[in-house]
TrEMBL record:
Highest taxon listed in the record's lineage: Bacteria
The protein, known as: Octaprenyl diphosphate synthase
Gene3D superfamilies (UniProt xref): Farnesyl Diphosphate Synthase (1.10.600.10)
Alphabetized UniProt keyword annotations: Magnesium, Metal-binding, Transferase
UniProt key word Magnesium: yes
Database matches in Pfam families: polyprenyl_synt
InterPro entries, per the entry: Isoprenoid_synthase_dom_sf, Polyprenyl_synt, Polyprenyl_synt_CS
Cofactor: Mg(2+)
Family: Belongs to the FPP/GGPP synthase family.
Length: 322
């Protein structure tokens, strides 16, 4: 099943999510509408909402609450993007100018806050303390991940373990919530809930690992952001960490200097070092291992087209080039 087939399977649910997003994004403040609609409609994969919908359907859910949850998850995700681009001083995302480059940092931060608070309004409307507990804890862990990443920036001595801690907090946690919530609203047994959470957590980790290797193996046009952005921001991602550990002294020194000073002027040379040291293959294998664990987690689920879509989505996460 390819990515188009996956989204075709849930197209009615995704259409309902898009409609709810547009409805709940509305504000009496014009700037919120302009900036909010720009970032929400800027060509994202809607992967996290899709996981919430597929998880609920795979667990036999037939209600409509999954639409609300998928929308909340997308709002939380979008808020993190707005804040990330300000912190990283990014000017390109998904092949377009970032909101902060168009409206400024202040507006981006404040509209990000609006999306966070709107998502919490919607959580309350669901009237489930269990769902609120999961979502509020998830949001808190993501914030911790942002701070952990900030602490690692420009630190060339960041270990693989510290890097993985960041991606588990910053990226995988919201994936995990999307998978877990689909099982929770379905009234699934605790072991199924755990399985769905584990599936999505490992999928999220794989997704971020692939994002980090694409930064050194694809073109700006393909991935929708500037090549070497992570390096320019001084982020020691796994390809860089591995290349430093396995390159010679000169190669390690070049990467170290680039991380510590946030440089991409030697990006061509650094990409060559990353390729020569096998860092791309190492990162790809780490992502494949995460995908294997994600797929193994689904063994407990009964067979269905939704389970198949979840398995295919895991494959897509490592096979994509954008």
């Amino acid at each position: 099943m390819d990515i188009q087939s996956i989204y075709s399977l849930i197209q009615d649910d995704m259409k309902a999510v898009d409609e709810l997003i547009q409805q709940r994004l509305q504000s009496d403040v014009a700037l919120i509408n302009q900036l909010g609609f720009y970032i929400i409609n800027s060509g994202g994969k809607r992967l996290r909402p899709a996981i919430a919908i597929l998880s609920a359907r795979a667990c036999g859910y037939e209600g409509s609450q999954h639409i609300n949850l998928a929308t909340i998850i997308e709002f939380i995700h979008t808020a993190t993007l707005l804040h990330d681009d300000v912190v990283d001083n990014s000017d390109m995302r998904r092949g377009q100018e970032t909101a902060n480059s168009l409206w400024g940092n202040e507006a981006s931060v404040l509209v990000g806050d609006f999306l966070y608070t709107r998502s919490f309004e919607m959580m309350v409307e669901i009237e489930s303390m269990r769902l609120m507990q999961i979502l509020s804890h998830t949001t808190n862990v993501i914030a911790e991940g942002e701070v952990l990443q900030l602490l690692n920036c420009h630190d060339a001595d960041t270990t693989e373990a510290r890097y993985l801690e960041v991606i588990h907090h910053k990226t995988a946690k919201l994936f995990e919530a999307a998978g877990q919530l689909g099982a929770v609203i379905s009234g699934s047994e605790p072991h199924i809930e755990t399985a769905m959470a584990n599936y999505a957590m490992h999928l999220g980790s794989a997704f971020q690992l692939v994002d980090d290797l694409l930064d050194y193996s694809q073109s700006s046009e393909t991935i929708g952001k500037n090549i070497g952005d992570d390096l320019a921001e001084g982020k020691p991602t796994l390809p860089l960490i591995y290349a430093m550990q396995h390159g010679n002294a000169e190669q390690a020194a070049i990467i170290r200097e680039a991380i510590e000073n946030g440089q991409r002027d030697r990006i061509t040379e650094i990409i060559q070092i990353i390729q020569e040291t096998g860092a791309i293959d190492y990162t790809a294998k780490a992502a494949e291992q995460e995908v294997k664990q994600a797929k193994d987690s689904l063994d407990l689920l009964v067979d269905s087209e939704y389970k198949q879509a979840l398995l295919s989505l895991a494959d897509f996460s490592v096979q994509r080039d954008y």
